Amino acid sequence: MLIQSFEFDAEQVPPGSAEAELLGRLDAAKLPRHLAVIMDGNGRWAAQRGLPRVEGHRRGARSVREMLENCARLGIDVLTIYAFSTENWKRPKIEVDALMRMLSESLRKELAKLVEHGIAFRPVGRWRELPPATVADIEEAIAETAAGERLLFQVALNYGGRVEIADACRRIAVDCIAGALDPEQIGVETVAERLYCPEVPDPDLLIRTSGEYRISNFLLWELAYTEIFVTEVHWPDFRLLHLLEALIDFQGRERRYGGLNGEEK
Q1: Max alpha carbon distance in the chain (Å)?
Q2: Which domain holds residue 208?
Q3: What is the pLDDT at residue 1?
Q4: From 9, 27, 40, 237, the catalytic residue
Q5: 10-residue mean pLDDT series, the chain (265 residues)
Q6: Res 194: pLDDT
Q7: In terms of Cα–Cα distance, which of 27, 28, 23, 29 is closest to 3?
Q8: What is the CATH number of the domain that holds 127?
Q9: How many domains is the chain built from?
Q10: Is residue 21 one of the residues assigned to a domain?
Q11: Which of 70, 135, 185, 188 is deepest in the core (most CB within 10 A)?
């Protein structure tokens, strides 16, 4: 019954499988509302197989598609993935160009499915600085999926946590100069309201693949009280089993938010 309630069928989750056992333990009332993911290990996955890095990114795109489908089936409200950072421009041009092409191809290929399944697409970051053709595909995806209410799919593109905070500070300075804001009244909420997506709740859980224990300039403000789960699995190999392991681990934690008795913010 639990598998059915999470919208998985027997073909997706065979009875008696490890996935079925974990689904049976999962509490639908204790799922993270917002899940964030640092998709690491594409290059290492490719190197281990003697393949070019681009092939690792291509296989990683399949994991994104599966992750999105699984989050929708589980009833998670927001999925945010770290796709391209402000530092990624330092990579070889051939790799950057390939990533931009894959992004556009994926958006065009998956757009109809996003609309069909009620998934809203939203870029996060300075995405308008990407190549014009990519920006055009992003704008189309935003417009076509705007009515989606089942799941909000956020993709961090040309994103950096420090840049986001700097952009928020710039907006605060503009408001102060215009006389719309008193500097003496600036507080935590003042900054939070000027981040890229102030209406979206902070992530409850961050998953990082490929065994790295750092947040790599991702959602620096928003991750203040986020639970972190690290797996050794490279992103191209990340499947439903690994997602369920992370969710079970998350549900076993007591979230304190800096307090003594687990009180919420």
Answers
A1: 64
A2: 32-251
A3: 34
A4: 40
A5: 63 92 93 98 96 95 96 96 97 95 95 95 98 97 97 98 98 97 97 97 98 97 98 98 98 79 49
A6: 98
A7: 23
A8: 3.40.1180.10
A9: 1
A10: no
A11: 70
pLDDT given at position 259: 66
The first and second tokens of residue 198, run together, are 């102030």
DSSP the chain: -HHHHTT--TTTS-TTSHHHHHHHH--GGGS-SEEEEE---HHHHHHHTT--HHHHHHHHHHHHHHHHHHHHHHT-SEEEEEEEETTGGGS-HHHHHHHHHHHHHHHHHHHHHHHHTTEEEEEESSGGGS-HHHHHHHHHHHHHHTT--SEEEEEEEEE-HHHHHHHHHHHHHHHHHTTSS-GGG--HHHHHTTSS-TTSPPPSEEEE-TT----TTSSTTTTTT-EEEE-SS-GGG--HHHHHHHHHHHHTS---TTSSS----
pTM of the prediction? Answer: 0.93
Question: What pLDDT does residue 2 have?
Answer: 42
Active site annotation includes 88: yes
Query: Does residue 11 sit within a domain?
Result: no
Given 77, 88, 217, 249, the catalytic residue: 88
The predicted structure's pLDDT at residue 261: 56
